Amino acid sequence: MPQIAILTPAPDYWENWSLPRAHYERLFGPDLAFRPWTDPGDLSGFDLVLPLLSWGYQRDVAGWFALLDRLEAEGLPLANPAKLLRWNSDKAYLAELSAAGVATVPTLFRESMSDAALASAREILESQRLVVKPPISGGADGTYLIGPSDPLPAEALGQRMLVQPFLPAIAEDGEYSLFYFGGTYSHAISKHPAKGDFRVQEQFGGIERGIDAPADAKALAETALAATDRLLGCGPLTYARIDMVRDGEGAFRLMELEAIEPSLFLHFAADEGALFAQAVRGQLSMKAD
Q1: Residue 54 half-sphere exposure, CB side, CA atoms within 13 Å?
Q2: Superfamily covering domain 93-104+169-269
Q3: What is the 3-state secondary structure (H, E, C) of 184-215?
Q4: Theoretical Cys-Cys bridge with 262: which of 8, 130, 170, 241, CB 3.0 to 4.6 Å?
Q5: DSSP string of 124-139?
Q6: Is 107 in contact with 257 (CB distance < 8 Å)?
Q7: Is the dihedral angle over the CA atoms 205, 209, 213, 216 positive or is it negative?
Q8: 3-17: per-residue pLDDT in tens?
Q9: pLDDT tens, 36-58?
């Protein structure tokens, strides 16, 4: 029987991953094994490796890239290819997608963040409220909402950071996430921050709702996926989550394209994840050929 490995958080990682684990166990049964990404051991006996739960990689960037180098060097079968995972780890990819014609949230990258860089970003982005975060990040780690008179947080000084305008629609309309498996649309959710916050993650009080994806949201998601394929030549992705928000004119703008370890929210999928399982098994068939 084909054997599938899903890479998981380190044993001491704090975030609860029991719900996605239950989904994957239901879909793949006894053919599934879980290995911590920080110390996965010998993976050569597996027919497919998915880093779907490698949460926290942004806290050990060197270890994460070393793992990708190892997986690539050993020719281990990854659901999404190692070159894509490496590219997708650093949100500098947003600049490449923007240059390729994808409507993204306007983003500035600063190699060494400073108060002067913050003031300059306010002028360039024409926004007094800014979101500042590391380009290699996850779960809102190191992410700040900075108001008109707020100084740069000490933790961000001298660090490589990206800067974006705060888009009020994140609180009013929510962040939209669309899910594609094997290049085919599956389902969508909207994520809403708690009152007074801007972060949509559950640990900060955010809530999710299943939605029907608007046509223009699907159009943006599919434009982003097509541009990714043109840039990397990776073909349809086994899984991807495309996050977006409306700008001041109501048009959708890409926030992130997540192809490493996105929460897939399969409990909102009408088919309960059958399309995802089909995409994974399709990869198994390709590896067998």
Answers
A1: 28
A2: ATP-grasp fold, B domain (3.30.470.20)
A3: EEEEEEEEECCCCCCCCCHHHCCEEEEECCCH
A4: 241
A5: HHT-SSEEEE-SS--T
A6: no
A7: negative
A8: 999 999 999 998 889
A9: 999 999 999 999 999 999 999 99
